[in-house]
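Notes from hallway chat w/ T.B., transcribed later so I don't forget. T.B. wanted the structure written out for a chain they're using in a teaching module, and asked if we could keep both sequence and structure tokens in one place. Agreed to drop them here.
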Amino acid sequence: WGLVDIDHQKRLVDLAISSMGKLPRTGGDGTPVHERVRKEMRAILAGDEIPAWLDETARSLLRDAQRQYKALGLDETWFVVEGHNVYLFLWQGDLFQDALSALLRRQGLEVTNAGICIQIKRMTANQVTECLTKIGAQPCPCPGGVIEIKDVRNPEKWDWVLPSDMVIGSYASRALALEEAYAWCR
């Protein structure tokens, strides 16, 4: 991208596609999305405002997303059932949603943190509610009871010299909000 103009009053930056350059290559899964970002996403979807800096395609996509948010009743419910899948719209950060996904997988469910929601395949809303109640009725599990060494993404530099339980514990402390997800189930 090349900088074309900056309007300090309106807080707008005009960019143009640059004829040079390549997309940067990055490793890993990217930065986890913070809870505050998802709360802001929800506020934008629940509202009717369209930011001035969006181009026409983005404005159209946002209007469609706002209509879908309202049609699904996501201001009043936290789950949507579509066929044999349940989608949990919790508007939490990835640390929370990854932890809740791991807790649900521990119950034998096929779960994916899909970013804006958690997708649970081949389940009904009642079955998911029963699993969440079951999780909340048990003591909060230790990280080793929720994830395995194969679930550890982006290991730290010296993880290879540590015992598996320490690697799992270290990963869980930086990548999972396990206690918060457990408390939500209660």
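Follow-up for T.B.: The mean pLDDT is 92. Might be a good example for the class.
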